[in-house]
Design goal:
- By secondary structure, this protein is mainly alpha-helical.
- It has 2 domains: 78 residues, no CATH class; 61 residues.
- The protein is built from 7 helices and 4 strands; from the N terminus they run αββααααααββ.
- The chain has a two-stranded antiparallel sheet. It has a two-stranded antiparallel ribbon with strand order 3-4.
Length: 163
């Protein structure tokens, strides 16, 4: 990659900007201003076979922004804050990540059962595989719940349809 990528190892950015899933893309301009808030977009088609989601629409938006300074309509989207359970879940997760406390991992997951930042991130810390059966169970529950997401709702092409 030839562009900066944020790795939020302590989940500070995700807590501050209500990022509750991966992948998430936030557009930041050369003045360090967020010009488009978090959106559950893909930067490549690496997972398109699993998700059925193509990156082409998002990449075309990025090209229009870079070449023509054209922001998509959804750039002014307001991302809703975490609710109290999600905030508590983040706090339990932070304690669990530092202490490997199964009690706090379970509390975090009970409070935010579909938050990939919590549930999926805890998998390797708890001896699980973030690309294994647990992940596929989580992904299925997430899809069955309507793919809830803090941020811009996905409008990118699915293979053969749009959601």
């Amino acid at each position: 990659m030839t562009y900066p990528v944020l790795i939020d190892a302590y989940h500070l950015f995700s807590d501050l900007y209500a990022v509750s899933n991966v992948p998430t893309v936030v557009w930041v301009d050369e003045n360090d201003t967020i010009v488009r808030p978090n959106a559950g977009e893909f930067g490549s088609d690496t997972f398109s076979e699993l998700t059925g989601i193509s990156c082409i629409d998002h990449m075309n938006q990025v090209k229009a922004w870079v070449k023509e300074e054209e922001l998509p309509e959804d750039a002014s989207h307001t991302v809703e804050d975490f609710n109290i359970d999600e905030i508590k879940a983040r706090l339990h997760f932070r304690i669990a990540a530092d202490t490997r406390s199964e009690y706090h991992f379970k509390k975090a997951e009970e409070l935010a059962p579909l938050d990939f930042t919590i549930v999926r991130a805890s998998m390797p810390m708890r001896g699980g595989n973030p690309f294994g059966e647990e992940f596929f169970d989580l992904y299925e529950r997430y899809q069955n719940a309507g793919s809830p997401y803090h941020g811009i709702p996905r409008r990118t092409a699915r293979l053969g349809k749009n959601d």
